[in-house]
Each structure stands twice: as structure tokens, then as C-alpha cells.
Queue: 2 jobs
Job 1
Amino acid sequence: MPWNDEFECMPVEKLEQFKLEKLKETVAWVAEKVPFYRKKFEEAGIRAEDITSLEDAAKLPFTIKEDLRDEYPFGLCAVPLKDVVRVHASSGTTGKPITGPYTADDLAQWTECMVRNFYAAGARPEDIVQNAYGHGLFTGGLGFHQGATGLGCTVVPTSAGLTERQITLMKDFGATVLCCTPSYALTIAERAEELGTDIRSLPLKIGIFGAEPWSGPMRQEIEDRMGIKAMEAYGLTELGGPGVAFDCEAQDGLHINEDHYLAEIVDPQTLEPLPLGEKGELVFTALQRRAMPIIRYRTKDITSLRREPCACGRTFLKMNKVFGRTDDMLIISGVNVFPSQIESLLLEIEEVEPQYRMLIRKKGYLDQLKIQVEGKTDVYAAGEKKRFEVEGKIAAHIRGSMGISVEVELVEPKFIARSEGKALRVVDERPKQFR
Ligand code: DLL
């Protein structure tokens, strides 16, 4: 059962009509309020009146991260600052941060989207929610806080870090829902095991994880180690944070909050729209936000979309698990490689822990990939011969599945830095001019 069945179960035709109205309103709104969009629409020769179907969205220009950086901090803001009640920001890994301003109405919509996420994950007002996403400029902490509060849960805003305290509070308060990145969930599970706490015997039953790519096998690993259902949240600062898409009890793709976000898939090279089912770059238009409604934002996330009846009753479009980001894609011997593919394969090897990183190096003109993965304590301790054997086994498994040769180094337990937020999986050691 959904939280808001009027929208979440709306017949598709009616939903599309609703989206079209909101798209027209938003395009007119930004054309009037934001010089950046006015200029771009003029250059593209498009006006709000020209949009008569959802397909017409393809005539609108794209917005990219660099546009947000160029317009930093408030150049894309469509309301006077006195109407902005909050600003979040994301630092990213390079360059200037990007900002996400909200009106009071935007915040209310965000809360609604997050309540839907919690409810679909199985949370109810009687739940005790431990929110271990970083609180602050990052949208994870406050976004989940609002959602859990909006649903009427008891919120414990632990923020990220201080892992031992997370475990103590989880036990003492009897948390039933944990919210954090999947890599931090793994860090918590591991520390609890070291401290002799069996999370599986605690009241914890649901995790709502997101903010970074994670593979299906990683979900399984976390479910097994914590004895919970690992549910998912997807979103990005540019669109207001988490709450863009979420999975339901079917755990079969993430429902996009379609009354708020228009999703498209485009070919990342040609930028041509791709039909449902085809894998490409996810592009979003925010349909109801007013402080910074973004038009055709290229997320760099790779996935595909599906429109199909779901066991949960929601009619919302589904996106498959994010496969990876275009900027995390490596080309090894001509093969496109995403960290999540390597992760899935590593999790099939019983001698290793799910802790790894990928180092990219240059050999001649070619990129080379070295994978460092932690051996299980007894495997690593068994000596060099055993380690060599496991390294060979992993390299053969990856070669057999993906057709690429990689160097594998079995590293000692705890070698890889543990994540409290977004895990760093790829270390680019190539000289700057080759990146
Ligand atoms: O990570 C918002 C968020 C917070 C989402 C908490 C879910 C939970 P940013 O820091 O702007 O915002 O990063 C956005 O993170 O473009 C994806 O590449 C990645 N990402 C977010 N959720 C998922 C997910 C938040 N479920 C970027 N699966 C996005 C894969 C995800 N990648």
C-alpha cells in the first residue's frame, strides 16, 4: 500500500497529463525568472507554448554540472533570496560546490517525497529511525530526517561517524530502521561483529541505503550480515536530494516520484533520447520545485527505465539500479568497466571481504586496472602461496566474466579505509593529461 495513492497509483495517462501541465508551468517559470534559461531557450528557439506533449521535452536544452558551477552560488535561483528558506550544497570531488536552494514549498514537497520513500521501505510511525547520513550541507541527513519526521517515526539523528556509538545507540534505543550509505552500513556491521554484537538479534529490520552505487550482491551481503531488508533511496543535490526514486517491497527497481520528476534516458554520446528499456544516461527535469527547478539535468548516472505494473500497486516509472556514473567508467582493453561490475564479481569469491578499491594506472598508451581486495583473516594469514592462489582465482573470474585482464592484490584485513559516507572505490593514478 502506498503513502499517497492518489499520485503513486495514478493511471499512467492521467499522470502524463499532470506531468505535461507541470512541465509547461516550470518552463514558463524559469524562462521568466532565470536569465540563464531565458537565454538558452531563446538560442534553442523554444517557448513554453511550444510544449504540447511530454516528447517535446526533448526540444529543451540540457543543463550540466558545469552550468551549476558557473552560476554558483545563486545564478540559477528562480526566487528572491528572501523566499529561500534553506540551502544545501554538494562539494563533489573537484572544483566549486553546487548549491541547492529551497522555498518553504520545495521543502514540503521534499518531505512528501521522502515520506513515500520511508513508507515504501516498510517504515511506519511506530518505527525508531537511526539516521546515520551526514547531517549538514549534504542532503542525506536532513532529507531523511524530514521524511522520518513527516511519517511520525521516532528519529535518532546520529549523523555519520563514531561507529561504536552508532552500535551502542542502536542497541540502547532499539532502532528498527537504519539510514546511511551502503558502504557505511557495511562498516557498522563489521565493527559490530568485532565488538561481539550480533545486529541480527537486535530489533533492526530495515535499512534505507543510497547516495552511492552498490551492486545486488552487496545488498544481499548487507541483508545477511544485519538480518534486515536493505531498501534503496536515490537522488541528487541538483534535484533536491534523496526522494527522487525509491524501491518498494518488490525490490525490483526504483519507483521515480514521477509527479515531481520527469525522467528521460539519453545516449551519453549523441544525447539523443533512448526508448524505455535501453541503458543510457539519466536526465531529469524537476516539475514542481520553485527555488531552483532544473531543466533536463544530465545526471551522469547510467541506468534504464521500465514502465510495468508493480506488485506494490504503484504506477510510477521504474529505474533499474544505477549501474555506475559516466565519470567512473573505465575503459580497459576497449571494454567499458564500472566499479559495480567488479564489486559483483568480488562478492562471489568466498575468500575475500567486500572491501576493495580499484587503481587505474597507465602502461604505455593503455589503461591498466589493479584491484586491491581484502582477504578474510584466515585466508590472508595462510601465507603467500594461498594469497597468490586466491589472486589468480579472482583474476581468472574477472577475465572469464568480462574478458579483461586485471592485476589483483590480496591485501591484509583492514587495509582499505572504511567508509562513513560515500566510499572511494576508484583511485586514478594516471598522469593528469591522461584522465
Ligand atoms: O547522494 C543524495 C542522496 C542522499 C541520495 C542519501 C540517497 C540517499 P549527491 O551527494 O548530490 O546527492 O550525489 C548524487 O550520488 O548522481 C548518483 O551518482 C549517486 N547516488 C545517489 N543515490 C544513489 C543510488 C545524494 N541509490 C549522486 N544508487 C547521484 C547509486 C546513487 N548511486
Job 2
Amino acid sequence: MFSIHGTGIGGGIAIGRARVLESRQRDVPRYRLRADQLDAELLRLETAIEVVRAELGALGEHLPEDAPSEARALLDVHVMILDDPLLAQAARDAMRAHLWNAEWAFSAQAGHMAAQFEEIDDEYLRERGRDVQQVAERVIRVLSGSTAGATAAAEPVIFVAADISPADMLSLRAAIGFGIDLGGATSHTAILARSMNVPAVVGLGCAGQLVVDDDWLILDGEAGLLIVAPDETVLADYRRRQAAELLERERRKWLIHLPTVTADGVAVQLQANIERPEEAGRVVSAGASGVGLFRTEFLFMNRRDLPGEDEQFEAYREAVAAMDGLPVTIRTLDVGADKSVPALRGSTPQNPALGQRAIRYCLAEPEVFLEQLRAILRASAFGRARLLLPMLAHSHEIDQALRLVEVAREQLRKRGQSFDADIAVGGMVEVPAAALTAGLFVRKLDFLSIGTNDLIQYTLAIDRSDHDVASLYEPFHPAVLRLVGVTIRTARKAGKPVAVCGEMAGDWAATHLLLGMGLTEFSMHPASLLRVKQEILRADTSRLAPRVARLLATDDPLRVRALLARLVEDH
Ligand code: PEP
Ligand code: MG
């Protein structure tokens, strides 16, 4: 028995046999051609590229109804890479120049391109280097006549690999878990695993080499742990934990039918965060009473062009209509930092998290912003849309944004297009400056939503996507909690709705704390809704409030942790 540590992507515990996928590090045949063989070799490469294009097309056509929403976008990215002249054309040039065989030329060029991505600071773009390698792996697999890639297994297995392409993951229906050597929490593969809702651990380093087919494995997606060939005691312990987890999840399902009210009668709104419009319809059956955050920037990613007004309108309308009168909070473009949109203009800032991101970008590019505002306003005629502005720090940003909302309204009036004239406009509190001047913000806005992910990043000066400082990213740092507390208090005093939509809202260990601060609106990943609801139903806010006030007066992070633990236990 031995264990390997990585980064947990969540999804609980999987226990099963290993299926090790062929490593893309395998030897690529390398030989020089005779000049008279070149044309036939070029044709062989052309044919392989066409076969891969057809494979990707077929995968796209046969996507199941419930396929993760990112799936199609990821397939599109792989087709784009396949069509990129920097890859295919450069490989052909290398074949002509050096008389290399097709596998050699194609893998060399893919390696070259991937290395260029490696040097990019932006984590999202860096991960695209892996997509290039994955496309190359497919082409080389076809060239060498091998079918041994990521093929579906007849029985449920845990797939282990140096790397698994998102496209390959789609054909791995029998997966009960994924253990992958490469990648970080924001890789496409990790994003897909998360939306497939199976346990996954990435960044394992060497599992692809140490694990062999049919090994018994325990994969703990929460702890980020892969246990290979566990002994009877460990296996029995994990089986017990897994059964308890499943039973608990099943039991929680009946909570959907209960009103979301605390033990002392305070009504709470539980809403969902979504990234794509088609997710909206599904969140109601997961227990949400609205969409508290629609991250619209995902519509702008993985493509070379920008979605125009009509395309955006269709996406927003789809979400608003699917929610059938329940609120849908549409956040305007939160581009920048770890979320890059290749089609948008702009320089590469020295420090992207502090650069021209989100509302700063939109105010600098009013035409892009107005196009989105018009699309959101038009969608508001089909249900209950709300408009949310990200990353506000200055009150003049609110003034300018509201002025542009007015311009967009006027443009629609002139066109004779209808919209909800009373659409609520809110702002995100993600920067300490916004939390500390929330009084001014609530006077200008209809509601606030606290983005704890960025609020923690900016309060503690910790890049939220940098592994090297991840241990310092402390959601329960007293400074963070005070900023959350003061924002909630200020909004409530002004009689304006306030929500938390960062990851803290979906962390059940923080539910009592947030309720004790006076929060009554939570928005989170749909999978967390019922676990948080369970805590809400047993909470007594009248008892929590004084204890949370004491906790907020504490400077020592360790004491805060201890008080927090007691807050949850005592209830
Ligand atoms: C946040 O910052 O907490 C938030 C919800 O926005 P995002 O995670 O999209 O930056
Ligand atoms: Mg944010």
C-alpha cells in the first residue's frame, strides 16, 4: 500500500480498480525519409488530421443530453488547434526541410508550441499548452495506427493517466474517478471532472507510472489523495466513509421540499452560480430559488471572436426564461486576471489581477460594454433579470456604469425593443475599498453581492490561482471576516438586499458564521445547496448573532478558527 498526494477537485470518495491510460510520453517513431517518400508521408499526415477532425466531430454530435456544458466548447478548442497553421503547416514545413517522418515533425512542433504556452504568465493560457499536446497525441495515435487511447471500459473504473484530454474524458462514461498527474485546479480537465461530479485528483505527479491496471485504488477527491493497493483496514474505513457520504447525500434530497427557514423563523434565499445558460433550468431541481451569479465571461472564452449582441441576448434570454420568474443575476463581463478572453483588445498587464479587469475593462471599452448591456436588458423582458457589476472600487465607476445602462436603455427605446424598465442594478463587493465604503455603494445601487474569492485575494495580497502561496489563502482571516461583516451590516441598515456569491457561501462550515452576521442570501455551486440548507434549518440566528459579534472582535486567526468550530458544533 502507498499513497500519492495531489490537488483534490472534489466529488467525494471513489473505490475501484485502476485503468491506466496510455501515456502520451511514449516514444514517438523518428526516422528520416528518402526524398521520393515525402509526398506519400505528407498525405499520411493529411489523412490522420482528417481522421482526428472526424473523431472530434463525431464526439460533438453524440454528446449526451446531460454532458457538461463546457464539453462542446472544449471540443471546439481542439478543432481550432487542429486547424492552426502554426501546428499543421509548421509540421509539414519541418517534414520538407528535414525529411522527418510525420510523427516526428508533428510531435516536435506540438512540443515547441506547448513550450511557448508554458512561458505565459496567465494560468488559463498556460493550460492551453496541454490542449495542444492532447491534440498532438490524438494525431500521433492515428498515425501509428494505435487505437489504444482513452477507450471506454465495460465496468466502472478509476482512470489514471499522465494526462487525459477533455475530449477523451467525454468518452470515458464508465469513470467513477480520475487520477491525473498533470494540471492544476483550473485546467480544462479539472473543470470537466468537477462538472461531471465524480471524484478527481490532479497534479499527482507520477501516478501514471506507479499504478498498474487492475490495482485497487481509493481516490479521495476532497483530500486530494490516491491510495494504491490499500490494505483491508484502510479499505474498510474508506468503504464506511463512502457509504456514509452516499447515504447522507440521499437523505438530504428530501430537504428540497422544505422551505429554507432557520430554526428561529428567518427566511433565507438559496441561489445557484452558473457559467452557461443551459445550466439555469437544472438548478431549480437542485434546490435553488434563483441564479445568484451568472458568470457571463464564460460565453466569451474558448473562441476567437466575440459573441455579438444577438448571440448574447439569446444566451441571457435562455437562462431568464428557464428560471420562469425566479431571479437571474447576470454579471457583466468579469474578464481579466485568470479569465482571459483572446478576442478582446488590450495589452498584457504586468500584474493582471490588479490591472484593467472586469468593470475597468468595460468602462474603457464602452462599445463592448453597451453591447452586453443591451443584450441583458432585452433578456429582462422575458423574466426576472438583475444586472450585477463586478470589481467595483470607486464610486465614479458606479456612476459611469449607470450612465451607460441609461444609454443602452435609450438605444433600445429608439429601436422599439422592450425591456424591464425597473431592472435592479447591483454591485459586487470584491475589493476591500468597496467593503469599507459600502455606505456610498448602497446609496447608488439596488443590491450588493459579496465575492469572497476576490475579497480574500485582495485583502491578503494572495493570488488565488498561485499554488506557491495557496497555503496563505485563508478565508477565515479576521480581516476578511470583518470586511464581510461590515458589508452585510451596511446593506441591511440601508434596507438593501445583500448576498454572498463567492465560494464561502457554499462552504457549510461558514453557514452559521454568515447567518450570525445577518446574511439571508447565499449563492453557490448547485452541488453544495442542500448541505448548506441542512445547516440553515438547524441554525438559531438569535443565538448566533452575539457569538459572531465576539468572533469578529478577535484578532487571532487560530482563535477565530476555534470559535468557528464551536459555532458549528454547538448547533
Ligand atoms: C468572487 O470573486 O468571489 C466571485 C464570485 O467572482 P469570481 O469567482 O468569478 O471571480
Ligand atoms: Mg470575483
